Amino acid sequence: MVLDQLVVTEYDLGTLTAVRPLFSSVNETYAVEFGSTRYALRVHRADPWWIAHEDELRFELDLLRHLDRNGIAVPVPIDRTNGDPLGRLEDGRYYTLFSWAPGRPGEGSLKRVRLVGETLACIHVASDGFTSPHRRYHLDQANLLDRYLAKLRPDAPQAAVIEEHAAAIRRRLAAFDPGPTGWGVVHGDVQSLDFHFTDDDRITFLDFDLAGYGWRIYDIAYYVTRIREQHRRPFLNSYESVRPLTDAEREMIPTVGRLAWIREEIGARELVKRLRKPYMTDA
Known about the structure:
The protein folds into 2 domains: 3-52 and 74-100, Phosphorylase Kinase, domain 1; 105-276, Aminoglycoside 3'-phosphotransferase, Chain: A, domain 2 (Alpha-Beta Complex). Helix content is 40%, strand content 17%. The protein contains 9 helices and 11 strands. It has helices at 3-10, 54-69, 110-127, 141-149, 159-174, 216-224, 229-240, 247-265, 271-276; strands at residues 16-24, 28-34, 37-43, 87-88, 94-99, 104-105, 138-139, 183-186, 195-197, 203-205, 212-215. Strand 2 and strand 3 form a beta hairpin. Helix 3 (110-127) packs parallel to helix 7 (229-240), helix 4 (141-149) packs parallel to helix 8 and helix 6 packs across helix 8 (247-265). The longest helix has 19 residues, at 247-265.
């Protein structure tokens, strides 16, 4: 069944006026318009490693609805005519239609950077009250570090240096106590493409397909090590205005930043540079 036929058959949203591809990476995403209302259709790639079962997809949909009920702007899954937001194509891939995230990606201004910090903290706090009958993967040492180091060839340039940094990360993680709210649901990929801003500075967080259970400081370190130096303190201050960090969490930011670089750039020439200096220099 072609996508036009699929959305007309599966959703009771009026007259279909457009279906067009937006981008394709881990998943395929399409803009779908019923009349003047726009939606985003996501077709999930078959069997990515972190999605081992339909349950994992349903966890994400439950989470998005929970955050929406708590006043956080996120794409909300739309029910099909049978009441189930998750559908399955004939080739076995799953799909979901979401409400549209208005605006454009990226932050830029200090005001918007502060909004990222405040909203991320609100996501963490709101998800403390989240429960789902569906399971979801963990962003722990096994999935953030060991899985990626397994891809490192022993003869790779500077492999010994990378392993040395990894050993130090393991020691720090073993001794790390994040505090009572330092472990829980995390977004998993806090970066400029994953939130949209409207012209009047309203933010929508999106792309929760990497979300799972992990250290909250991972979300913070992933973002703060990739933004401009003059934006780091405003981001952290805004985050802590909602959810104060423990001393242990603050001290772990550089270490977890290195962990995030290993996950993202294993095999890349720049990795050793990032491990030595996890904060990106200003452009």
